[in-house]
Design goal:
The chain has 378 residues and is an alpha/beta fold. It has twelve helices and 15 strands. Keywords: 4Fe-4S, Iron, Iron-sulfur, Isoprene biosynthesis, Metal-binding, Oxidoreductase.
Length: 378
Amino acid sequence: MTADNPSLRPWRDIERRKSRQIMVGDVPVGGDAPITVQTMTNTLTSDPKATIDQIRRCEEAGVDIIRVSCPDVESTAALKQIVRASRVPIVADIHFHYKRGIEAAEAGAACLRINPGNIGSAARVKEVVDAAKANGCAIRIGVNAGSLEKDLLEKYGEPCPEALVESALDHIKILQDHDFHEFKVAVKASDVFLAVAAYSQLADAVDCPLHLGITEAGGLIGGTVKSSIGMGNLLWAGIGDTIRVSLSAEPEEEVRVGYEMLKALGLRTRGVRVVSCPSCARQGFDVIRTVQTLEERLQHIRTPLSLSVLGCVVNGPGEARETDIGITGGGAGKHMVYLSGVTDHHVSDGDMVDHIVKLVEAKAAEIEAATEQVEAAE
């Protein structure tokens, strides 16, 4: 009954778009690899300690790949220390200066975020591509509706799906002309409809991995909603090999939202999936505060499992049957605890949160031990 069991319900199946696979450091992207979750640091890259501290928090949240901006020599000079300290591959964000791309590749970046058509002459492009090849560096082409090339804006009159796709194809051709194929592509826009249409068209035109994002999505709540609508639409259609939720929030929050998005679609499993009611006058305990506390205290759990927290017996028993651990509000401060969908015992108000945390930790340990036994037997 754990959350990572494969579904036997065909109406829940998502058939992913077939893409070729590349490597970003030691992380496979595309093909049949899991959809990776990315974020980006917002510290000064030239301050390696602050940047590494932020990367650590993102690693704890489960980030697979992390991007750092390299706008100047001081940043690429610090990159070697950052790469050495990071447990996940580093993408160096390069915009216009080709030398920063070369320096980042030589400093150990696993990937360069760069648009080859924006960094100058063919000779400069060749230097960056040669540096990427020499250092085993992938490239991420990052087309953005807010910074489309002038000729495309003149041709189409405004940012549109066709303009984003044409820009992406132009940049792809430059890399292919240099016999470079270790690349992934993004065609981001802040407008959900524009982004979804552009990604859908690009998915039909190329076989490379696609990096999804709704750029400049907004704050934690608004940006989460906007990203979930746009990226969720694409992921549900099987499009997307790696994602970044762009929020005006701390990077680790982007990681958590990304995982929740993938968990909701059954595409990744990590940590506790909480099923909870919005609460009403029937609730036997403070559902909202209880869920907030449990989510905070269970962030350290990485093993996939499910927990239902329901305030009363109207929907509680039904939801609890579908989760590893469940609790349903009852009268007189006594609440029913379900284990593997079966009623097991009661717990009182004062002990409830600590009790649930212990049950989840014990269940996670049990699942981990069983997994280790299976792996040992193989």
